[in-house]
Fold:
Amino acid sequence: MKIWIDFTNSPHVNFFEPFIHQWTLQGHDLLITCKDHGNIIDLIELKGWKYTVLDKYGGKSKLKKIIFWVKRLYSLQKFLSMERPRIGIGQSTFGAPVAAKIRGIPFIYLNDNEHALAGNYIAMSFSTISILPIFLKDIAKKRKWEKYFNISYYPSTKESIYLSQIFKHFKKLNSKNEIHNIYFRPEPWTALYYKGKKNFLDNLLTDLSNKYKIFILPRYKEQLNHFLNLQNNNLTVLIKPVSLKTIVENCDLFIGAGGTMTREIAILGIPTISTYQDELLEVDKYLIRRGVMFHTIELDKNYIENVIQKNNDSSKVDLMTMGNEAFEYINLKMFELIKT
Structure:
C-alpha cells in the first residue's frame, strides 16, 4: 500500500521517523514530498529516505506565501495524480489536505499550533480527520472546531510521540551540577507567526563561552552567517545539521529561542530553558506547568545558574509513556481510515 507523507518544516522529519520505520517494516511503500525550506532536505538525506521536492518556501511576506501555496497545491495535484497513494498524512501542512480532497484521497491532519488560525481552518476543512494533542481540547471547543470538523485527540505532546519510539532506553548520565556543553537554538526569524526579538542573546552567549562550551544550531543560511561572527575557541557554530541523538548525548544544558527542539530536549530530561520572545503556545505552557521546562524572556547568568541547581527529569517517564500511547493511537486511526 502507498502511504503519502508531506513535510513542510524541519521538525516533521523527526516526528515521522518512527512511523516511517514501522510502515516500511510492514511492507508499505512510502511516498515523501517536501518543501525546500530550512534544512528539511539535509535532514531527510541524513535518514536515507527517498523524497520528492515540491516547490520552496515563500518567505515571510503574506502575499508571497499565498502565491507559493497555490503553486505548491498545483504541484501536489500533479504528484498525486501520478502516484495515486491510498492515504496521506501530514503535520501542520496546509495545502496537502486540499490536494488530497480534490483527488479523493483520505488525509490525516496533525497539528499542535493553535496560532496558525487560517492554516488550521483550511487544513481541517479538507482533511478526513484532524488529530490534535489533548491540551488543545478546550481551545477546539471554544473555536467550535469539534462542531465543524472531524476532530480526535491524542495524549501528551507531539514531541513525546516520536521521542517515545526513538529514545526508548535513553538515560542522560550526568550530574545536575556538571555543566560543560550548552547548546543554543535561535529564534525562527522567517516564521510568519513570530513577532519577537532577534539576536537578543548574542552578548550573553559570548559571555557564557568564557566558562562553558557553546554550540549554536542555526536554522538557515542567514542565521549561520550571523552567528559565525561570534565564533571563538569555546563558541562553535554547527554548520551542518546534527542529529537529535548527537545533541542529547553531548548537551548538558539547552537554551531554545524557538519551539520544537526546545521541547524535545526538555522531554528527554535535559535541563532546558525556553527564551521564546512571542506568545507561548499551549504545548509550552503544558510543559512548564509540569516542571519539564523553564521559561524566561530576560535570560541572564544568574537564571542559568539557578536552573543548573534544579532537576527537570521527574515528568519525563509519564510524557514518554503517553507518547507511546499516542503513537499507537495514530497508527490505529490510520488503518481504521483505510478500511472505511
Notes: The two ends are 15 Å apart (CA to CA). The longest strand covers residues 29-36.
